[in-house]
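Retry 2 of 3 after timeout on previous attempt. Resubmitting structure tokens to design endpoint.
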């Protein structure tokens, strides 16, 4: 009997060895596909290897990695937790993968706990200290984050440069910009690799810009040169608006404008801004001086920024002059809110409540604006982003009197902003609006007016140094109306091209 059992074992052992070798071969193919980025193929081979040898934890670990790459996060988490229950003390890389997964899901505390468990097994891994410090940073536990970054450099001197860079993020998150710059200087002196050197440089630029923004005051100014081929929105047939048979008159003109503004901040921090503002604007035409505009606007503003939410409200009171005469007073309150969704998406909703008090005998107008726009960015040209946007806007004008018609406008709009070589930046926009005018027997006795309006825009600009910017802009409007005169001509159909050169500065 003993001889028979021995004989059976002698036959079985080579077969087991062959099966084990076959499973390893399939596993190696799966790992190759995983490292090569073919995640579906990798998962197929890794599943085969596990079927052949379910006890090999290495096969299961790489299967979990493939699931993470395929963004099947719930399955990956289940697989990693199962692995740790089978061998909780011998798999630091499993803890690291699970922590990384939790970090991706913004479960900062869970991630830090798993990095800690990995460090209990391999306490000399500087990269894990860096990763755990990043989680503490997100949790706003700045003391622990700074300790981890220093420990990363101690146990792994080769990580001294990234550790110094990460240490700089601690005061940066707290708004201590001077200490941030000091630590960035240290990181730069440690000869970082190219990608990190670029990140250090970019952060230094951001810190310098923010230091300028956090002053108690700011001043901006601009000069504008403009050509407008239809200043007064004349119809295409050359008749005066709403006046059949009126003679054709000049519609195009050159103009120049000056603007200047200033803000004073009582509070100017990342978390909140409170202050007052003044704005002067003007636009003067060469020939059609009846369209000259000049305004003075006084106001205050408040911003509250508990990331990822950003709230802002401004209140303004403006005095507007046309052709040298006081034409309008405007009061407006304009709230807005922006919500960030990760690094690449944000949505802004805005509103405006306005009261227009006309001084030329026209009806006063109450105006409401509501809108929302979503932005999505793609990184192109190193760290410069291409951003697409799309949104809607509703406007409502209600005159207080009988001399004007109430109107409502609904607009769909979109656009793209993208970088070009030589630090140029371009923007393209398009909008389509429906404008409805309510019946007013004093204005439109025969039919209700409805307009459809296309708008197109293009802009090419570039910053010059830290304070100046130059933009070339084109805006096109085409308005089509259903209102006609006795001959069938559209009284409100017009197109308009406005070409603008804007030179602006912010100090």
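Retry 2 succeeded. Sequence:
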């Amino acid at each position: 009997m003993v001889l028979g059992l021995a004989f059976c074992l002698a036959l079985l052992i080579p077969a087991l060895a062959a099966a084990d070798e076959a499973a390893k071969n399939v596993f190696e193919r799966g790992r190759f596909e995983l490292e090569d980025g073919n995640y579906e193929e990798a998962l197929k081979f890794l599943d085969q290897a596990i079927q052949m040898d379910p006890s090999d934890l290495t096969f299961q670990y790489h299967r979990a990695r493939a699931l993470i790459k395929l963004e099947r996060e719930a399955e990956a988490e289940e697989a990693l937790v199962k692995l740790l229950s089978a061998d909780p003390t011998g798999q630091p890389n499993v803890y690291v993968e699970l922590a990384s997964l939790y970090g991706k899901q913004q479960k900062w505390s869970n991630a830090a706990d798993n990095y800690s468990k990995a460090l209990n097994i391999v306490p000399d891994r500087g990269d894990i200290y860096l990763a755990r410090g990043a989680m503490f940073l997100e949790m706003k536990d700045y003391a622990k984050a700074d300790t981890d970054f220093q420990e990363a450099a101690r146990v792994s001197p080769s990580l001294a440069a990234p550790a110094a860079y990460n240490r700089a993020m601690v005061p940066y998150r707290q708004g201590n910009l001077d200490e941030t710059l000091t630590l960035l200087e240290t990181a730069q002196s440690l000869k970082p690799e190219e990608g990190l050197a670029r990140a250090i440089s970019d952060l230094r630029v951001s810190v310098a810009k923010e230091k300028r923004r956090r002053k108690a005051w700011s001043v901006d100014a601009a000069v504008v040169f403009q050509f407008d081929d239809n200043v007064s929105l004349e119809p295409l047939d050359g008749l005066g608006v709403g006046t059949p048979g009126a003679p054709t008159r000049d519609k195009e003109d050159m103009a120049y404008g000056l603007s200047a503004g200033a803000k004073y901040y009582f509070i100017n921090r990342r978390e909140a801004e409170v202050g007052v503002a003044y704005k002067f604007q003007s636009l003067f035409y060469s020939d059609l001086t009846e369209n000259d505009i000049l305004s003075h606007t006084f106001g205050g503003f408040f911003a509250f920024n508990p990331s990822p939410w950003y709230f802002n409200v401004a209140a303004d009171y403006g005095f507007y002059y046309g052709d040298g005469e006081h034409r309008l007073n405007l009061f407006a309150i304009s709230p807005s809110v922006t919500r960030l969704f990760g690094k690449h998406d944000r949505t802004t909703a805005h509103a405006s409540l306005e009261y227009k008090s006309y001084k030329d005998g026209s009806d006063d107008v109450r105006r409401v604006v509501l809108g929302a726009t979503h932005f999505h960015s793609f990184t192109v040209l190193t760290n410069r982003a291409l951003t697409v946007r799309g949104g809607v806007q509703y406007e409502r004008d209600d005159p207080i009197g009988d001399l004007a018609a109430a109107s409502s406008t609904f607009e769909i709009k979109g656009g793209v902003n993208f970088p070009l070589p030589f630090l140029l930046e371009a923007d393209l926009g398009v909008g389509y609006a429906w404008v409805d005018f309510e019946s007013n027997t004093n204005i439109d006795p025969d039919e209700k007016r409805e307009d459809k309006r296309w708008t197109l825009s293009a802009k090419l600009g570039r910053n010059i140094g830290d304070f100046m910017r130059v933009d070339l802009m084109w805006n096109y409007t085409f308005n089509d109306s259903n209102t006609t005169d006795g001959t069938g001509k559209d009284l409100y159909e017009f197109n308009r091209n406005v070409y603008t050169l804007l030179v602006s500065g912010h100090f």
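Attempt log closed. Confidence is low (pLDDT under 50) at residues 1-17, 240-248.
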